[in-house]
């Protein structure tokens, strides 16, 4: 398939094109015209991509996310190889109805940076933040390129999706180096890890009672069924299970062409079995646990699976956790 | 890590996940169960927070099967569930619901309940916790608790707990509350007694502590040096619709709202910082506030500081309304107050000289509950005359319902050559900043009860001290030779003139909502 060029993209869907130097003024005008609109913002959410195909999907994603998390949204498409250098910007309001009469809106500023280098990206982000609010960046591109210390030292939360990485081992190395650097105080959220949240919750339910807990030491194998392209999500889940059990269970990964990212998890040992199963169309998971003769089943929410829902969900779960970063070295070693 | 801890749970939740539990609801065929309790449990299930192997048993007098009971609850859930109704989830969730028919006074019925609970435990393979929820009429509390004890259901089995949740009203005066507390205490330990006040489950009520103790700009100013006064308003634009008059006319605004909900808000605003967030640390501080309320003893003190009133015929938002005494099931000669306003003083170092004005009423222009903290004016404002500063003090408003949020009123210079000031409002609204709906108060409180967190529930001494204070006012109203006047206000107005005068005498005004 030929690569997508800017000419193939309906850029007018990004809103009103505005000279970069006049963004502030254009945003002001955006609000002056309509008093029924209320501007709201509790965070800065920037998405950085170097993939033209991704631009419109991200544009729609921000609309979805802003409906639940009022934000200053920055959407940046950088095309470092493109020449001649050119920077363009668009503004739009992401609105949702509020109490019947009014609408509440977030602001979105979109940039297409042809020939954009790391410095230009940083300057664009820093010049257009809603001041005093946290900065959340979803970095969709290769971490090894424009992701520089000057930039990440100012980020509050970095969102990544390690399941998208072509070379996850290399990317995890960069991420670990950034996290371990003096200025790497940012919180990291991996969508691949968030995808397994419902599996982890469901697994906890399997082994909630005393009888099941007694049998945990008998577990020997982990079997995870995942969709193609979600191997990292499955590995992260397996690392977590081994960490929690303080053991090293035999791991089997089963890849499926279609279906939800994570579709099944089975932990098994003599006389003990825990299973979490997600059917394709269901928004619930079936959980069953067996200890000896006794089997019980439950239905639990399956959580969300799309990128938009995942980002929305993890913006709701802001509390610093070192769990993910503590698992990274183990995931890294499994990727070898 | 002990052998029996679930290692998978530890890293998942910011709160502790509750263990397997059976909830028995007494008065299960009532409105509360259909409108609030079951939809709350259903929504907890939809969030995946329900304890595993959870069971609900509805306990009531009418004869019906599990299937009929589930079908009735399904109808209620479709109408009242915050997250809507999903057939697949309901099918799974409803399997955990059972019905048990018995009279409240029939010991055999409780013994049969015990056998049913044992059967559930046998199916689980281990004993589970037991939560008894008293959603029946208050007069049934005593026989229910006595029968629970007589049937031996008040003791947990196999190291598990048994708890009780009591719905309001918790007594109608100090004597009845003490009596009820004695009955409860004879059946359950105080640590296992959860007196519910759904106001404390509201997001903004919980946010009061965060606002005060997590923001360094507020706490240093949160005292008599900087705060002029505090107002707490709970306005309702309805009257006695739906047959409420029968109960309400025996209670009145003071007992129905002030003793519990508004005193809870008052304590959250006025309490000292707790040493930690344990239930008793928080509740210790709240009790201190109630104990420090300056008593209003005798008709004179009550008359000077409390205004009671009944509404007369009028209209609310264009709709004609009858007067209170003409309402359905209300005594035509009723001396019950659907409106009360109070001036309260808290005799602590922090609040010396700062009045807390509370008002609650029916048939007012709008439905709103909010707390407003009115700061003192600066000692001198060089660019304003005294008249320009009228009603322009900095005001922090905490909106409890509807439209939960926080607003701060400040003065700004108007644009232009002249030095003119203008009041402006910085407004934070939960619903516009967080698109995600807050959980219903009952969801939070039920989850706390099954997880063993009593922070948002009232403790015995809290309830009794509140009644002790309220009783003196009731005594002055109903047992003195010179009772203070019962004022009137037209339905749809903001209350009687006497309530305005209560503040005017102090050089203040009620905030315009």
Question: How would you describe this structure to a colleague?
Answer:
- The complex is a heterodimer of chains A (336) and B (513).
- Chain A has helices spanning 23-32, 54-68, 118-127, 149-152, 168-180, 191-194, 197-206, 210-214, 231-245, 307-315, 323-335, and strands at 16-18, 37-39, 43-49, 71-79, 86-98, 102-114, 135-139, 157-160, 187-190, 221-227, 250-256, 262-269, 272-278, 284-291, 294-301.
- With 336 residues, chain A is α/β, with parallel strands linked by helices.
- Chain A folds into two domains: 8-155, no CATH class; 193-301, no CATH class.
- In chain A, strands 1, 2, 3, 4, 5, 6, 7, 8 and 9 form a nine-stranded mixed sheet that branches. In chain A, strands 11-10-12-13-14-15 form a six-stranded mixed sheet, covered by helices on one side.
- The longest helix of chain A has 15 residues, at 54-68.
- Chain A is globular.
- Chain B is α/β, with parallel strands linked by helices and 513 residues long.
- Chain B folds into two domains: 21-196, 3-Layer(aba) Sandwich (Rossmann fold); 203-440 and 458-505, Dihydrodipicolinate Reductase, domain 2, CATH 3.30.360.
- A nine-stranded mixed sheet of chain B has the order 16-15-14-13-7-12-11-8-17, sandwiched between helices. A six-stranded parallel sheet of chain B has the order 3-2-1-4-5-6, sandwiched between helices. Chain B has a two-stranded antiparallel ribbon with strand order 9-10.
- In chain B, strand 4, helix 5 and strand 5 form a beta-alpha-beta unit.
- In chain B, helix 9 (253-270) crosses helix 10.
- The radius of gyration of chain B is 24 Å and the shape is globular.
- The relative contact order of chain B is 0.13.
- The model of chain B has no long low-confidence stretch (mean pLDDT 90).
- The interface between A and B is large, with 49 and 36 residues.
- Chain B: Keywords: Carbohydrate metabolism, Glucose metabolism, NADP, Oxidoreductase.
- Chain B: NADP(+) binds at residues 61, 103-104, 168.
- Chain B: Residues 24-207 form the Glucose-6-phosphate dehydrogenase NAD-binding domain.
């Amino acid at each position: 398939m030929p690569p997508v060029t800017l000419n193939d993209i309906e850029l007018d869907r990004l809103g009103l094109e505005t000279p970069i130097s006049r963004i502030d003024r254009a945003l002001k005008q955006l609000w002056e015209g309509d008093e029924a609109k209320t501007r709201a913002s509790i965070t800065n959410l920037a998405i950085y991509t170097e993939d033209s195909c991704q631009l419109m999907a991200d544009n729609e994603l921000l609309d979805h996310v802003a409906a639940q998390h009022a934000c200053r949204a920055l959407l940046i498409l950088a095309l470092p190889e493109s020449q001649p250098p050119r920077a363009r910007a668009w503004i739009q309001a992401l609105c949702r109805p509020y109490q019947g009469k009014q609408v509440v809106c977030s602001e979105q500023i979109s940039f297409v940076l042809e020939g954009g280098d790391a410095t230009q990206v940083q300057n664009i982000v820093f010049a257009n933040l809603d001041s005093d609010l946290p900065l959340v960046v979803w970095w969709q591109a290769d971490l090894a390129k424009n992701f520089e210390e000057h930039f990440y030292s100012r980020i509050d939360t970095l969102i990544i999706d390690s399941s998208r990485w072509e070379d996850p081992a290399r990317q995890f190395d960069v991420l670990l180096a950034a996290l371990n650097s003096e200025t790497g105080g940012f919180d990291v959220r991996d969508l691949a890890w968030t995808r397994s949240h419902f599996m982890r919750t469901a697994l906890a339910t399997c082994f909630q009672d005393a009888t099941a807990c007694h049998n945990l030491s008998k577990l020997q194998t982990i079997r995870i069924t995942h969709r193609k392209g979600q191997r990292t999500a499955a590995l992260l889940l397996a690392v977590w299970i081994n960490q929690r059990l303080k053991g090293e269970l035999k791991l089997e990964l089963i890849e499926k062409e279609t279906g939800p990212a994570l579709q099944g998890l089975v932990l098994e040992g003599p006389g003990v079995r825990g299973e979490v199963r997600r059917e394709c169309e269901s928004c619930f998971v079936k959980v069953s646990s067996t200890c000896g003769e006794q089997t019980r089943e439950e239905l639990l929410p399956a959580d969300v699976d799309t990128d938009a829902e995942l980002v929305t969900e993890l913006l709701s779960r802001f509390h610093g956790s070192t769990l993910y970063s503590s698992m990274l070295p183990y995931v890294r070693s499994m990727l070898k | 890590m002990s052998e029996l801890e679930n290692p998978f749970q530890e890293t998942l939740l910011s709160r502790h996940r509750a263990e397997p539990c059976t909830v028995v609801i007494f008065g299960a065929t009532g409105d509360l169960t259909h409108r609030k309790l079951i939809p709350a449990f259903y929504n907890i299930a939809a969030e995946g927070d329900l304890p595993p192997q959870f069971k609900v048993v509805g306990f009531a007098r009418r004869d019906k099967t599990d299937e009929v009971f589930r079908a009735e609850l399904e109808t209620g859930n479709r109408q009242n569930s915050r997250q809507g109704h999903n057939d697949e989830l309901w099918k799974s969730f409803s399997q955990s619901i059972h019905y048990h028919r018995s009279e409240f006074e029939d010991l055999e019925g409780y013994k049969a309940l015990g056998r049913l609970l044992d059967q559930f435990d046998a199916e689980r393979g281990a004993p589970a916790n037991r939560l008894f929820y008293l959603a029946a009429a208050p007069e049934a509390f005593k026989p229910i608790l006595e029968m629970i004890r007589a049937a031996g259901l008040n003791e947990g089995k196999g190291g598990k707990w048994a708890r009780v949740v009591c719905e309001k009203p918790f007594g109608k005066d100090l004597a009845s509350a003490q009596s009820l507390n004695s009955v409860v205490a004879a059946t359950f330990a105080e640590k296992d007694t959860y007196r519910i006040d759904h106001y404390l489950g509201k997001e903004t009520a919980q946010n009061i502590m965060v606002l005060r103790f997590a923001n360094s700009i507020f706490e240093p100013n949160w005292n008599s040096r900087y705060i002029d006064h505090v107002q707490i308003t709970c306005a309702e634009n309805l009257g006695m619709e739906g047959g409420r008059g029968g109960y309400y006319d025996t209670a009145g605004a003071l007992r129905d709202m002030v003793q519990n909900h508004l005193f809870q808000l008052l304590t959250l605003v006025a309490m000292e910082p707790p040493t930690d967030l344990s239930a008793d640390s928080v509740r210790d501080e709240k009790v201190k506030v109630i104990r420090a309320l300056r008593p209003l003893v005798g008709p004179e003190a009550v008359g000077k500081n409390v205004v009671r009133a009944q509404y007369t015929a009028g209209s609310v938002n264009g709709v004609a309304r009858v007067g209170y005494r003409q309402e359905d099931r209300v005594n035509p000669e009723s001396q019950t107050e659907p409106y009360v306003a109070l001036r309260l003083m808290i005799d602590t170092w922090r609040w010396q000289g700062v009045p807390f004005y509370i008002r609650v009423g029916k048939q007012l222009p709008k439905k709103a509950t909010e707390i407003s903290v009115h700061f003192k004016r600066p000692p001198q404002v060089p660019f304003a005359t005294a008249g320009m500063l009228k009603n322009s003090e900095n005001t922090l408003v905490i909106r409890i319902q509807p439209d939960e949020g926080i607003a701060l009123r400040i003065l700004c210079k108007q644009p232009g050559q002249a030095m003119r000031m203008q009041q402006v409002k910085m407004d934070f609204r939960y619903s516009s900043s967080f698109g995600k709906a807050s959980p219903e108060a009952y969801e939070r409180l039920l989850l706390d009860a099954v997880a063993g967190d009593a922070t948002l529930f009232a403790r015995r001494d809290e309830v009794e001290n509140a009644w002790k204070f309220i009783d003196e006012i009731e005594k002055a109203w109903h047992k003195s030779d010179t009772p203070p006047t019962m004022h009137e206000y037209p339905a749809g107005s903001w209350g009687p003139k006497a309530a305005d005068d209560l503040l005017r005498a102090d050089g203040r005004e009620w905030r315009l909502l």
